[in-house]
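Entry for the shared binder. Reason: the reviewer on the internal report wants the predicted structure included alongside the sequence.
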Amino acid sequence: MKKHITLLAIIGITFLSVGQESFLINNTQLRFGVKPVLMNNLKLDRSEKNLKSYPALSFEAGIGVKQRLYHNFSLIVDAGYTLIRFHSRYNFEKEINYVEETHHTENFTETVQGMFVIPISFQYETLHNKKLNYFTELGLKFNIVDQYPYAIEAGSSYASDLAPPDQNGNKNVHVFSIAMENKTQEFFMSYVVKAGLIFTTKNTHTFNLALVANYCPTRMYKGSYSFFDNQPEDVSLGINYVGLECAFGLTLKKKNYML
């Protein structure tokens, strides 16, 4: 009986070992990453046919550490910096006040301010291949604005002899103006999700390419916009975005795993 049990154990171990191969993989990494992202558009509390807002191109860069916790699972802690931006387009198709032209269109993109970010996330890798694997990542991001409280004003105007002079004697038509401020919070928390590919080199260094999304339920900036001397309307801006993450992982420690 003992011989049979021993034989079955040997056969079982041999069977489980077939097709498996031991290989080195990163256990601790230093990460460097950059993200070109599309920030969310302005939120208008009232529908406005003359003003449209679109996602604005921005960037986030950072450095961090990746620590493998158990086989497929890793903990990642980064620190970085993000630019908060918005893009809008407005136009008129009729004469308003003392505007000399019947059609006026302008696009503008504004950088609101910068923000320090600390994302903490858990990553799952497939580990099916030595060179190419898939991963998903979920985490929280701590966002701290670099100036607080903070206000931004933007707009457009042009010279016109038909306009009344201002206090400096200049005759300008103020076509559009927008003003927003953040005076309630310096710290915001958001949620991050990623999915992508991990390319591994012979030295177990890695290059990640992933789709990334950031969602913050809080509208950080609130204010108003107006055309000419019309009644101001409410507007707000958040820090949600979607984008592409490119990251390089420099392996500091390695560990053997079974493929």
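Summary line for the report: The first strand starts at residue 22 and ends at 39.
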